[in-house]
Amino acid sequence: MEKERQVLVVFPHPDDEAFGVSGTIATHVQNGTPVTYACLTLGEMGRNMGNPPFTNRENLPKIRREELKAAAQALGIQDLRMLGYRDKTVEFEDEEALTNVMSDLISELNPSLVITFYPGYSVHPDHDATGAAVVRAVERIPAAARPKLHCVAFSNNCVQELGEADIINNITHVADKKLAAIQAHRSQTEQMFSDVEEKLKNQDPQIMVWINNERFWTYKFTN
Question: What domain range includes position 82?
Fold first, then answer.
């Protein structure tokens, strides 16, 4: 993994960072690279309330805010931005205004690498809208000055239409931090984590590949 000047991670929901990129984040932090995580919403429309339930719809945003802080701490992220958008409404935000927010972040931080969702290949409308806004913001920058843009994709057709991921980061050395970040989002992950732990104990091949490897597509601009 290359040493970066600054990394900017932009996702719409708490826990988006945990599953697909937390090992990559932790590695950059270990390398001494500043990492900023901009999270657009608090995931307040999430269905899970813990297992067994330990919160309710009214208190879920407060719970998820604290879980997000705990996950960031587990990964060593010191610059966590909560942007205050509402869960499941990012697709309805004014595109120009949302793009300007992303442009302002990039101008402020001057990252050498930006990580977000690949628009059209990340299943959830909030994911796609967030990724699209980041793409538009990076595209505004002259080609020679653009940061690298690494995108997460996991739709059923992503490999068929995009090809295989061109970046695969082995994060075995920080897998414990990744697992800690996933566990930090307790309201959303508690039910599935016991199953994950059991498979990890048994060295289940599929779960080991999932935990230890994180894949990205480099976004290729046409101009």
Answer: 7-218
